[in-house]
Amino acid sequence: MNLAAERTKYITAVVLYGTIGLFLRYIRLPSEIVAMCRGILGSGFILLFLRARHQSIDRNAVLRNRKWLIIGGICLGLNWIFLFAAYMQTTVAVASLCNYMAPMIVILIAPLVLSERLDKRKMPCVFAAFIGIILVSGVWNGSAGNLSGVILGLAAAACFVIIVICNRKLQGIKALDRSVIQLAISALTIFPYVLIRNFGTALEWDAKSILMILMLGLLHTGAAYCMYFSGMGSLPVQTVAILGYLEPAVSVLCSAFFLHEAMGITGWIGALLIIGAAVVSESLGERTHKKS
Questions:
Q1: Number of CB atoms found within 10 A of residue 192's CB
Q2: d(CA 265, CA 12)
Q3: How far is residue 189's CA from residue 163's CA, in Å, rounded to a whole number?
């Protein structure tokens, strides 16, 4: 197995995830339509990928795990609705970092929903991430417009937490199988919302928006999912965890250098607190795992 190639695939996928907010800024369509198209195109791409490899979805495994797949798929759709709306309400950096509070939330609720012991060593990480969100959001200086984006970003994080829990409950199902099912369910979840929000509205399907949606669906979702799970299944756990933090870092950099969205010194300190807290928390968890 070529670990260098697998590492490149994984890094490519994570970097693509980090640039989603940047691409959304160039789409002149409602965020819920973009999210629905992403689910449709992404699931279609993975189905074609499986077909090209002469693989089929394990229907028995899907049926055994249908409860958690359905809940996870619904929450994936909701996560995209909230996150994409957050991108429109605040900066890409703030929305992404709020969404990335999910690992910290999982730490707090894991004892209740996953019967996992609370690691008290991680509590300073949770506190640091919380302080980081306050600094990043700018709500401490009365930025009301920013507050709505922060709330939407945190709602996206809450949905992502449920996705994490659902995927931990899954048993005996391949990564791409669960991905294609959850992506398809996410599109079905968003569809009624699209109809309600856009009934009778004239939509601007310009060439640039269509191109960007195709890229988000096929490249940032379909291809990225395939590369992500390929790398995840081949690389050491610690490598996967550390490289995963490239996603919020890339989002912050895209926000600053391509969209010229100012964060200020307190914003950068907050970003470092959030990403640093996640890295330290993951490092503590890996050490505990090795000792056991």
A1: 9
A2: 29
A3: 14
pLDDT (0 to 100) of residue 144:
46
Q: How far is CA 212 from CA 179, 217, 235, 284, in A?
A: 22, 9, 31, 39
Best CA proximity match to 160, nearest among 148, 171, 168, 172: 168
Residue 90 has what DSSP assignment? S
For 207, other C-beta atoms within 10 Å of its C-beta total 7
Integer Cα distance of 102 and 170 in angstroms:
19
Over residues 72-84, the pLDDT tens digits come to: 999 999 999 999 9
Structure tokens at 19: 């640039």
Rounded to the nearest 10 degrees, the angle between the axes of helix 66-89 and helix 175-198 is: 50
Count Cβ atoms below 10 Å from residue 208 Cβ, excluding itself. 10
Q: Considering the entire predicted model, what is its pTM?
A: 0.84
